[in-house]
Structures are given as C-alpha cells and as structure tokens.
C-alpha cells in the first residue's frame, strides 16, 4: 500500500499561503509540489468548501487563505481532505472462519482505533501557526531571520 502525502503537502501549501501577500496560482503551487495544477485544484477544493481558502480566476488570481494560520488545526485540514487513511495496516481475510484470524483482526482493529483517536486528538491541538513558528525558529538558527516570506514558492 502506498502512503498518502496529501495532508503533509496541503499543510506545506497552507503555511506558504499564510506568508504570501498575493495569491498563488495552481501552477505555482504545482511546481512547488512537483505535481499537476489539476491535482492542486482538486485537492484544494475540499479546503475551499470548508472555508479555509478561496480561489480567484483571471490575472492576479489564485489561492489565498481566508483564515489565519492560528485558526486552522491539523484536524481541520485532515477532515477537509476527507480523512485519508492514517495507518496502512489492514486485517487479513485469508481464513474468514478461523477463530485465530478473527481474534488477531479484532485485536489489531481495536489497537488501530485507539491509536487513531490519540493521533486525531493531537491533530486538534496543533495549529498551522505552531508549524510556521517552528519554521521561523529554523530560519533564525540558519541566520536567515524572519524576512523570508516565500521561502520556496
């Protein structure tokens, strides 16, 4: 099973958008993520529907945040992306009638649910501004200061 990087990628994009004065086009974001602008528009649509970003067409258009980074949690973004799978563990189904397999699957599923609840609880407490603050500290350690508004867009 292949990993799903949409959450990480959209957190990256949103933090950049929070530092930009002007809108970022789907093409600019796509270059940053090394993907296609259509993928950007499709992925950003869920964030737009939840009211975290807006898009404008035409010259000077593009994507902008509608809320500040301290008003958006990791959980907000995760839910806007329609809750992608957090863990790649899946239950076996080779011997559906085997009591050992049933017990193993139930134990794994219970543990997965508990781990997911803990992770989502943590997501709810983390704001995008927390991540942006960590970025600012890293810039400061490199001696680059906080003047870098568009680090890699």
From TrEMBL:
<dbReference type="Pfam" id="PF02082">
    <property type="entry name" value="Rrf2"/>
</dbReference>
<dbReference type="InterPro" id="IPR000944">
    <property type="entry name" value="Tscrpt_reg_Rrf2"/>
</dbReference>
<keyword id="KW-0614">Plasmid</keyword>
<dbReference type="InterPro" id="IPR036390">
    <property type="entry name" value="WH_DNA-bd_sf"/>
</dbReference>
<dbReference type="InterPro" id="IPR036388">
    <property type="entry name" value="WH-like_DNA-bd_sf"/>
</dbReference>
<protein>
    <submittedName>
        <fullName>Rrf2 family transcriptional regulator</fullName>
    </submittedName>
</protein>
């Amino acid at each position: 099973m292949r990993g799903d990087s949409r959450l990480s990628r959209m957190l990256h994009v949103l933090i950049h958008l929070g530092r930009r004065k002007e809108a970022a086009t789907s093409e600019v974001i796509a270059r940053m993520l090394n993907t296609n602008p259509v993928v950007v528009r499709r992925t950003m649509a869920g964030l737009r529907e939840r009211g975290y970003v807006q898009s404008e067409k035409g010259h000077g258009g593009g994507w902008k945040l509608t809320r500040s980074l301290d008003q958006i949690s990791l959980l907000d973004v995760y839910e806007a992306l329609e809750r992608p799978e957090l863990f790649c563990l899946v239950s076996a189904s080779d011997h559906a009638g085997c009591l050992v397999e049933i017990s193993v699957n139930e134990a794994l599923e219970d543990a997965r649910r508990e781990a997911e609840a803990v992770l989502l609880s943590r997501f709810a407490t983390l704001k995008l501004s927390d991540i942006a603050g960590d970025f600012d500290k890293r810039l400061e350690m490199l001696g680059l200061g906080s003047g870098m508004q568009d680090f890699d867009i």
